[in-house]
Input
Amino acid sequence: MATITLTISALPAHVRTARLMAATVARRAGIAASAIDEIRLAVGEACSRAVAAHKLHCPTQPILLQLIDGSGPDPVSEPRTDTTSRAPRANGSATRRFEVVVSDRAPSKDSEEPTDNVEPILDGLFLDGDDTPPGGISGFSPGLGLAVITGLADEVSIEPQDLGTVVRMSWPLSTDQPQDPSSN
Amino acid sequence: MDLKLDHYTEGDTEIVVVEGEIDVYTAPRLRELLIDLVNKGNFYLVVNMEKVEFLDSTGLGVLVGGLKRVRAHDGTLDLVCTQERILKIFRITGLTKVFGIHDTVQEAIDKRSSK
Output
């Protein structure tokens, strides 16, 4: 078990960096080639959502990205923290997995929003310039991004909390040997 | 790679050629181009995505925004794309039913002309 942690400022330009790093680490972990594009896209969506949320609520705060390669042995000297623990699996599978955790620090719900107003996940799709809220990112729709993540990740959990949202995504590792790092 | 944008006229259709990555960083440039074309009276658009290497939901939002704008003038916005990895995001989001997606620019033009 190896974890790579990346902290990025809430800037759209850094989403690409996160995407590229996730794809590189996934390839080294031995993820099937067909799933690399899915990981790249899902990580991009999660980071885009986090950047948009930070731009609205806390633009100076960083966004945390953790890439957890489950292909190696668990480290004995480094107990896992809450932020790196895996989401429970419905089938109890012990399959080694590649997991990506994107943690933001933006409140998951506006304080002015009525508490009984539970919006469907796909509400507000397809924002363009006229629909973009002040401080938001043109063209970005958080609901659509989460829908795409759900469609791409093998397992996904989205945990909205008062102090931010944690998006966990994971994919099974193939039984083949990880690629030689020099091939990246 | 970054985003490269170009456009040219083919009869009454404006062809937009997109190359590179359409994401949260670059999508605003595509949005500005589509708005500019519509504001100049181009209501029949074909976006050639054959050289697009990456597309995320921000890019989808921009394309749908463009579609809304041309439809307000009874226009059309069709796509040219044969790349499976790009088509996948259209399928996941159900947008294959919203956009006309064609194999070639000529096919996109011919399909609209025959309607």
Notes: The interface with chain B takes residues 12-13, 15-16, 19, 37, 40-41, 44-45, 48, 51-52, 125-130, 137-141, 144-145, 147-148, 151-152 of chain A (CB under 8 Å).
